[in-house]
Amino acid sequence: MILPIVAYGDPVLKKKAKDITKDYPNFDTLLENMFETMYNAYGVGLAAPQIGLPIRMFLVDTTPFSEDEGISAEEKAALNGFKRTFINAKIIEEEGDEWAFNEGCLSIPDVREDVFRKPKITIEYLDEHFKPHKESFDGLIARVIQHEYDHIEGVLFTDKLSSLKKRLIKGKLTNISKGKISVDYRMRFPAQKKKR
Question: What is the DSSP letter of 80?
């Protein structure tokens, strides 16, 4: 089932999410719905807070990035078919010199800005079977993971922008929070929530 994606301005996007256990209610259905929702919105990542759940879970499928121009054959191969579920994740190390990349977010449609992040991360997480992993990732895969990880920490990519950039996009962000935007996927706006 395709779920509505929570728009910028909803308090759930600014909350630090909580760990879950393997007896989380209807987990398999939730996971299936989250992947379906992400693909429907043409996303490469989706975090549980983006569907209104303050839990430490996010998904990544970087396959669409493998078709981008200007990416090395090596990186294309790494991106193609990289699909993971991250539960109760904890980034334990970020390394290297920060680099800029133009990021967007399903919760903040039509806003794209350069964000600086470190190129390599080491992360501990549980997969969809609640099996523990500790892995290192770099390049675009690391960046997508960092972006989604920020969601479970209550951080949005717009929080990482300079105060000048934030002022320049303030009007757009206000319109998104009020639902004054046209998107081709289901969204839930903070204003709609209050009316119910």
Answer: T
Asked if 157 and 115 count as a contact pair (C-beta separation under 8 A), the reply is yes
Residues 33-54 pLDDT 10s: 999 999 999 999 999 999 999 9
The C-alpha angle 48, 125, 141, rounded to 5 degrees, equals 75
- Backbone angle region of 83, left / alpha / beta, with phi > 0 → left and psi within -120 to 50 → alpha: beta
Q: How far apart are the first and last CA of the chain?
A: 22
Residue 65 has pLDDT above 90, yes or no: no
| Helices and strands of the chain, counted as H and E runs | 5, 9
What residues pair up with 101 in beta bridges, in sequence order?
115
Beta strands in 69-183 (DSSP E): 83-95, 99-105, 108-117, 120-126, 132-138
pLDDT digits (tens, 9 = 90+) for 116-171: 999 999 999 999 999 999 999 999 999 999 999 999 999 999 999 999 999 999 99
**Residues labelled catalytic:** 148
Kindly report the CA angle at 95 between 90 and 97, in degrees rounded to 5? 135
